[in-house]
Specification:
24 strands, single chain, UDP-n-acetylglucosamine1-carboxyvinyl-transferase, Chain, binds ligand EPZ, four-stranded mixed sheet, 2 domains, alpha/beta
């Protein structure tokens, strides 16, 4: 195994291809749209494939920038990643050249940190950058690091990098988190699958993407099970085998298209939609008065116009099965159209409300009370504006607002949504939206 590269080289963020979306709003969206595979499941599944040297095949992987970042990181490690067809990836981590996850990967995508557990468990060492990722809040990884130490790893932190190693196999242990952490749960679970002995993870995140990962690990021969709502138990094995897996549908993308119909007053049918994973979101929509019908893997939404009689309501984000924090921004757009005062309590991240200042630019009556609370008064008609996306989910929500607004909008920073929404402008165009991509050189 080659020695890790020296760390003195300076990381230069490559110039982001500046791009924008031009939107002409006020048109009802109608038609059918297929929901793509889940970004947050795909990234962990690709990382989990490094737990074996055998080939793993994933289908229904969304063609998005974050998947490309993960694929590039795996290839940089020396992992073979083939892309035999759209939405299909094959991974074979027979051996790796080195175990170094560089700054640029982590700076682009926090989820690169999910490689800590599997690489440590399989190869016994990894040097991995402290992630930057989304700008929503501080986003520490202390819970991941503590879990690895509980499993017997030694981890030092120097110059922005974690130097992790485990003399011999990791050891099964009781991993107790102070609160629910999705990737913390996933990192601990992945590491535990090859540890020597029994591991219990509590509270284990209940997100559907975690259960999708468990299904894949079981197909690899891992002895892992959700033994209670918030408990995952693992009996470590010496090796796992390759397996095939189809990625579950993306519930956040689905929720985004549901709000698009509700905001523009059109009628949209979602195909391959994970209605079963949208319980809390559908409950809020019912309170607001949005008409939604779920039939199998289809969801039909009939939106109402500006005076559509939506009713204000209070929302609070929570770990699954509560209302997903990633659906809070789209829901905030919808609440601008609801009559009355809605209170938003963003309980998971400490600054996922700042983007509401952009929504105010479009005419919404918004008051940000503190890092976790905001008020929206409605209904207010939205008007087009020139804006800049700050992160992935807020970016998608600005598109929703622009589609419903009267007049034209120009939204800069379009690369943000490419991270997590496959062909987003094409999907909206197919629903009748007037949205075009503008390259800004
Ligand atoms: C996952 O992030 C998702 N990302 C996020 O989606 C999602 O918003 C989040 O879970 C909550 O559902 C991926 O799966 C790639 P957490 P994760 O650990 O795992 C704190 C998107 O747009 N915390 O559940 O990083 C943390 O700051 C993204 O797709 C620590 O303090 O979130 C937060 O307040 C955005 N120390 C809370 O826990 C740690 O070591 C929950 O975060 C880890 C987390």
């Amino acid at each position: 195994m080659a020695e890790a590269r020296p760390f003195h080289w300076e990381y230069q963020e490559p110039p982001i291809q500046r791009e924008a979306f031009r939107v002409e709003g006020g048109l009802p969206l109608s038609g059918a749209v297929s929901v793509s595979g889940s970004k947050n499941a795909s990234l962990k599944l690709l990382a989990a494939a490094t737990l074996t040297g055998e080939r793993c095949r994933f289908t229904n992987v969304p063609e998005i920038a974050d998947v490309q970042v993960m694929v590039d990181v795996l290839r940089d490690l020396g992992v073979v990643v083939d892309h035999p067809a759209p939405n299909t990836y094959e991974v074979a981590a027979g051996d790796v050249d080195w175990l170094f996850v560089p700054l640029e990967a982590a700076a682009k995508m926090r989820a690169s940190f999910i490689l800590l557990g599997p690489l440590l468990a399989r190869f016994g060492r990894v040097i991995i950058s402290n992630p930057g990722g989304d700008r929503i809040g501080r986003r520490p990884v202390d819970l991941h690091v503590n879990a690895m130490k509980r499993l017997g790893a030694r981890i030092d932190y120097r110059n922005g990098y974690y130097f992790a190693e485990s003399p011999g196999r990791l050891r099964g242990a009781e991993v107790a988190f102070p609160g629910v952490t999705v990737m913390g749960t996933e990192n601990a679970m992945l590491a535990a699958t090859l540890a020597d002995g029994h591991t219990t993870i509590r509270p284990a995140a209940r997100e559907p993407e975690v259960d999708d990962l468990i299904l894949f690990l079981q197909a690899m021969g891992a002895d892992v099970e959700r033994t209670a709502a918030e408990t995952i138990e693992v009996e470590g094995k010496r090796r796992l085998r390759g397996a095939d897996h189809r990625v579950i549908a993306d519930r956040i993308e689905a929720g985004t298209f549901i709000v698009a119909a509700a905001m523009t007053g059109g009628e949209i049918t979602l195909r391959d939609a994970p209605a079963a994973n949208l319980g809390a979101f559908l409950e809020v929509l019912a309170r607001v008065g949005v008409e939604v019908a779920c039939e199998g893997d289809g969801i039909r939404v009939r939106g109402a116009g500006m005076n559509g009689g939506y009713v204000a309501t209070d929302i609070e984000t929570a770990p699954y099965p509560g209302l997903a924090t990633d659906l809070q921004p789209p829901m905030a757009v919808l609440l601008s159209r609801a009559a009355g005062r809605s209170r938003i309590h963003e309980a998971i991240f400490e600054d996922r409300l700042e983007w509401l200042n952009d929504l105010r630019e479009m005419g919404a009556r918004v008051r940000i009370e503190d890092d976790h609370h905001a008020i929206i008064e409605g209904p207010t008609p939205l008007h087009g504006a020139e804006l800049k996306m700050s992160d992935l989910r807020a970016g998608a929500s600005l598109i929703l607002a622009a589609l419903a607004a009267h007049g034209h909008s120009l939204i800069h920073g379009a690369h943000q949504v490419r991270r997590g929404y496959e062909n987003i402008e094409r999907k909206f165009q197919d629903l009748g939206a007037r949205i075009t991509h503008v390259s800004e050189g």
